[in-house]
Amino acid sequence: MEDQVPVDGMASTPAADEPAPPAEVTLRTDDGADWIQIVSGEWLRGEILRVRDDSLDFDSDELDDQTFDFSDVLRIISPNHQVVLTEDGRIFEGQLSADESSIWVAGEKTVKIPRAQVLSVLAVEGGGASTWSGEVSAGVAVRTGNTKQTDYSAVLAATRETARTRWANRYSGAISEVSGAETANNHRIGSSFDVFVTKRTFVTVPGIDVYRDPFQNVGLRVTPYAAIGYEIVDTADHNLSLSAGPAFQYQQFDSELASGSSTDNSFAGVFSTSYDWDITGDVELSADYNITVPMPDIDEYNHNVVGTLSIDLAGDLDLDLSVTWDRINSPEANASGVIPRKDDFRMTVGIGWTF
Question: What is d(CA 161, CA 297) in angstroms, rounded to the nearest whole number?
Fold first, then answer.
C-alpha cells in the first residue's frame, strides 16, 4: 500500500458557517448547585458545606468531599442559603458570592464584607441556622471451630454546627464473647459544646465523658469538664487541635473495693488532642488522645487513644479500621482482691455510613 501524501486540511476544507463558542465560561446557576473556582482556574460544581479556620469544605458532584485552603478559592457563586459570621460577631444570611478579596451576601439587601473579616460560613437548609453531620459504623466478627468467639463493635457520631458553635457527640462500644462467656463489655459516650471566639480559638462549655467497663472494675465513670482549645494546624489536608481544662470525676466501681468503698470522686485536669489527615481523596487518618488526671493523686490517671483509618467505598459508605487503647494507671482491686490489668487494646473493622 502506497504511503498517503499529507493534505493541507486548512486549504481544502471550507470555512465554518458559524463562529466558535465564546471563550467565557458559562455557569448554570438555576439548578441549586454551588460553584467555586480554585487557584488553578478550574471550576467545581457541588455544595459548599462550611468555611471554618480558613478552610472550605466542598462536596463535589464528581470528586466527592474536598477541603481547600480558603485562600486557594478564587471565586464563589452560591444561590443557596448561607450563614456568614464575622470576627466582630455580626451575622449575615443570604445567597453568597465572592472574589479573591471580598464576599457579597444577598438577603434583604446586598452587603459586601472583606474576606479577612470572615470567621465562618455555614450552609443551612430551609433558612435554618444549623446543620447536622455524622457517621454510623458497625462491625461483627464471628469465629467457629475449636473456639467460638463473637465480637461486636459500634460507633455513632453526630455533630451540630452553627456559624459560631459546634456540638459534637460520640458513642463507641465493644462486646466480645468466647464459648458463651463474656470477655469484653465497654462503652464510652462523649459530648462537647464548643464556642469559637476567634478563627482558631474555642471554649468548651460544657463537655462530658461517660465510661463503663466492668472488666476494669469501672461500673460507671462520669467526668464533666470545661476547656479552652486552639487549632494549631488547619490546612486542606491536616488539622491538629489541642485543649485543656478543669474537670470533676465521679466513679462507681463495678465490684466493691477491698477497702469496702464502692464510689470515689475527685477534681481533675483534662487534656485532649485531635489530628486529622486527608492522605488522599479516598483515604483519611484520624487520631484522638484524651487523658484525665485526678488531683492530687496524679498517678491515678486514665487515658483513651483512638486511631482510625477510613477508606471511601461506594457512595457514603466507608471501610473503618480502628485501634483503641484504654489505660487505667492504678486499677482498683475488687472485693476478691483481683487487680484488673492496666491496659486494654482493641482493633475493630467496620462499615460506616456518613451523613
Answer: 37
Three-class secondary structure of residue 207 per DSSP: strand
Provide the pairing of β-strand 73-86 with 34-38.
antiparallel
**pTM, rounded to two decimals:** 0.76
| Strand pairing report for 343-354 and 302-312 | unpaired
Q: What cell numbers appear for 118 in the block?
A: 470572615
Query: Rounded distance, CA 16 to CA 348, Å?
Result: 64
Q: Which domains does the chain have, with CATH numbers?
A: 25-123 (no CATH), 131-354 (2.40.160.40)
CA 233 – CA 242 distance, rounded (Å): 10
Could you give the C-alpha distances from 227 to 208, 221, 243, 244, in angstroms and in order?
11, 19, 6, 5
What is the distance of C-alpha 332 from the center of its chain? 34
pLDDT by residue, tens only, the chain of 355 residues: 556 677 776 777 787 788 877 766 677 777 888 999 999 989 999 999 888 878 898 988 777 788 888 999 999 999 988 889 888 888 888 899 999 999 999 988 899 999 988 988 988 765 555 678 889 999 887 777 666 788 899 999 999 988 788 999 999 999 998 887 888 899 999 999 999 988 889 999 999 999 999 988 899 999 999 999 999 988 878 899 999 999 999 999 888 776 667 888 999 999 999 999 989 878 999 999 999 999 999 999 999 999 999 998 887 889 999 999 999 999 887 667 778 889 988 888 889 998 8
- SS3 label, residue 311: strand
